[in-house]
Amino acid sequence: MWKRLVVIAAGGALLDWVTTSIGLSTGLCYETHPYYNPFIALTLFVSLSLIAYKLRQFCSYRLRFAYTVLAFAISASGYFAAINNAIVILQLPR
Question: How far apart are CA 74 and CA 52, in angstroms?
């Protein structure tokens, strides 16, 4: 299951990087973080999701599902950034 987390995190980080690059090249948005790096974002998404996934083995049975959901939510957070970038690029009202 940890391979799914890595694939989800990689897809989210890649999509975030693509939409950030499109937004920066068209001049519609700017990056507020001066040291933005998609590889650092990917590393953070993967490492935090794997930590949350590994923590589930030390918890009770009821908390294992919560840690699994947390791991998938952390790995999917790159998609939320990509959606936000797409909204800015398409100039949709928030």
Answer: 9
Q: What are phi and psi of 68, to 5 degrees?
A: -65, -45
**Does any domain span residue 77?**
yes
Q: Helix (H, G, I), strand (E, B), or coil: what is residue 76?
A: coil
Asked if the structure places residue 94 within a domain, the reply is no
Domain of residue 74, residue span: 2-25+34-89
Task: Work out the pLDDT band at 90, boundaries 50, 70, 90.
Answer: confident
pTM: 0.78
Output the CA–CA distances (angstroms, integers) from residue 73 to 8, 37, 48, in the order listed. 10, 21, 10
CA distance 32 to 3: 31
- Is residue 17 a contact partner of residue 36, using CB atoms and an 8 Å limit? no
pLDDT digits (tens, 9 = 90+) for 66-85: 888 888 888 888 899 889 88
**Count of domains forming the chain:** 1
